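F.,

This is the one I mentioned.
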């Protein structure tokens, strides 16, 4: 399993600094200190200190951690946000969501438990095995 770490000193919240393009499949955990846009497939966990944007054809099979989420694609795993999560039309999430705010637009589908408001101390059970030595997730970690 590969680990991808991307670091950048300046953080611009409007433009994703990391991009997983369409027709790209990445297997392993992705960690970035910036925002990320995913249009391809990731088989593994994603940990972003910035915002996470999923395009309509994006697929993540693993847990996703980040600041704010805009989801138009599919996540099979848990979503942990230190900000807001927006499920856009045609978005699909099969897993638990922990966020300060949640919006689900008409046409989106979601199946799982949800904790909205207090993110600190929230517990979720990861869907994907994670390497304990490299796992640096936010406070809402798996049991």
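My design for it:
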């Amino acid at each position: 399993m590969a680990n991808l770490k991307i670091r950048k000193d300046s953080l611009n919240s409007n433009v994703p600094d990391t991009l997983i393009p369409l027709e790209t499949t990445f297997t392993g955990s992705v960690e970035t200190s910036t925002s990320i846009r995913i249009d391809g497939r990731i088989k593994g966990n994603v940990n972003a200190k910035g915002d996470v944007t999923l395009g309509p054809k994006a697929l993540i099979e693993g847990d996703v951690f980040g600041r704010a989420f805009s989801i138009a694609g599919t996540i099979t795993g848990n979503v942990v946000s230190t900000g807001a999560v927006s499920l856009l039309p045609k978005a699909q999430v099969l897993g638990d969501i922990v966020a300060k705010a949640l919006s689900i637009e008409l046409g989106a589908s979601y199946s799982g438990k949800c904790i909205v408001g207090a993110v600190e101390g929230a517990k979720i059970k990861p869907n994907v095995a994670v390497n304990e030595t490299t796992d640096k997730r936010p406070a809402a970690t798996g049991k």
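Residues 78 and 95 are 5 Å apart (CA to CA).

Talk soon.
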